[in-house]
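Database export, one record per block. Field names are fixed; values are copied verbatim from the stored entry.
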Amino acid sequence: MVLSDVVSVFALLVSLGSGAVALRYTRTDTRFAAYDRSTDLFLEVDRLFLAQPDLRPYFYDGARLAEDDVDRHRVEAAAELVLDVFEWIWRRQEELSRRDQEGWRHYILEMLDASPELCTFHHRHPAWHPWVNEILLNRTDKA
């Protein structure tokens, strides 16, 4: 083996090593970015409920709308926002840590269980949120 071959093999090993390190950092950065984006999105939902606390009972306390309720459009708009956030979070779940995945899964299921209006809106438009469908179909805590 000549010196140039040794240098080539050494350069290849260094290149592979630096590629592996870069991949590791990219995965870590992607996880942090997904976590940050998920948190940012859900803070939007928190802001909605802070600005319009009269909507909270429909999402946390099982309140139901009357068919002619004047708040129907506001509740439906809030339901769509919440489901959109759930959809984005669960669509990106592979970028979250296992612990974060489990936390979000439990939270999403608990919100759906607590809110007949959220479920009603979702069942009226199931194709809009296929990842929420996946959570519901694969739930292991069938209550």
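Remark 1: The two ends are 68 Å apart (CA to CA).
Remark 2: The helical segments are 3-51, 57-60, 72-91, 98-114, 116-124, 130-137.
End of record.
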